[in-house]
Amino acid sequence: MRVCLLASGSRGNATLIESDGCHLLIDAGLSAREIDRRLREIGLSADDLDALLVTHEHHDHVSGIGPLARRHKIPVYIVPETAAAISRLGSIADIRYITAGQRFTHAGLEISSFSTTHDAVDPIGFTIDSREGRIGYATDLGLSTRLVVDRLEGSRILVLESNHDEQMLLDGPYPWHLKQRIQGRHGHLSNRSAAELLQRLAWDGLEAVFLAHLSEENNHPELAQQEIARMFATCPGCTPQIFLGQQASISHSFCARGPESGSEESTDVC
Ligand SMILES: [Zn+2]
Ligand SMILES: [Zn+2]
């Protein structure tokens, strides 16, 4: 089991998920070539990807989907309205349409999608379940709804948005309408909202939390990390490793062995 954020932020997102020997990529907001290059940094390549999952149509999540799928013959799971909203998706030989809330299997993995509140046509998050446990993924959401909490509960690894510091956003250079959009119900989660969501998801089986989609203008990695660490200090028995997504380079990887080989964990070298 392995998770690595190949890129995270408003200029491109892509997350590698490996579970039970299957390699998924959630979103591809970098060029196909750059995704392949970053995968090679962790000993993989785009040819190793078994499927692409798409959360929503914003450019920072989909710019590499078409070329990656065509060049490396990878199936793409996507909501039809999302596919229609991507202006330059191009033709994809193996496109598998899903709906928000649908459960499906791919190479033995049980994958569920769930609706998120964000200013896209039909945005979704994912959970991926295997013998090795649950991985939960939710970025680009304005609110942590009851549905989001229900679906992400029991995750062994979580990838969650921690987009902005509320004060930095208010004091920052963005025009007022953009500040309103980001902090609105269909915008992005602040560090504080991410901490509140994590508090509801904390349990003793939570081993790793990836903080994703950090704003370069309205956040500092240290602020996000401090907010989350403060919250976990109030949750005895829940001591996950915290990882930070970055825009310009890959994150550290979280790796864990399968249930039959014990729970030894490592970071980076998998
Ligand atoms: Zn985004
Ligand atoms: Zn978005």
Protein described:
With 270 residues, the chain is of the alpha/beta class. It has a single domain, classed as 4-Layer Sandwich (Metallo-beta-lactamase, Chain A), CATH 3.60.15.10. The protein is 27% helix and 26% strand. It has helices spanning 32-41, 59-62, 65-72, 80-85, 146-152, 166-171, 176-183, 191-201, 221-232; strands spanning 2-7, 14-19, 22-26, 51-53, 76-78, 95-97, 103-106, 109-115, 124-130, 133-138, 157-161, 208-212, 241-244, 254-256, 265-267. It has an eight-stranded mixed sheet with strand order 6-5-4-3-2-1-14-15. It has a seven-stranded mixed sheet with strand order 7-8-9-10-11-12-13. It is globular. The chain binds zinc ion (2 copies). One zinc ion binds next to helix 2. Residues 10, 13, 58, 60-61, 140, 213 line the site of one zinc ion.
By CATH, the superfamily comes out as: Ribonuclease Z/Hydroxyacylglutathione hydrolase-like
- SSE run: EEEHEHHEHEEEEEHEHHHEHEEE
Q: How many structural domains in the coordinates?
A: 1
In this structure, how is the largest beta sheet organized?
8 strands, mixed
| CATH class descriptor name | Alpha Beta
Please name the defining characteristics of this protein.
single chain, 270 residues, 26% strand, binds zinc ion, 9 helices, 8-stranded mixed sheet, 7-stranded mixed sheet, Metallo-beta-lactamase, Chain A
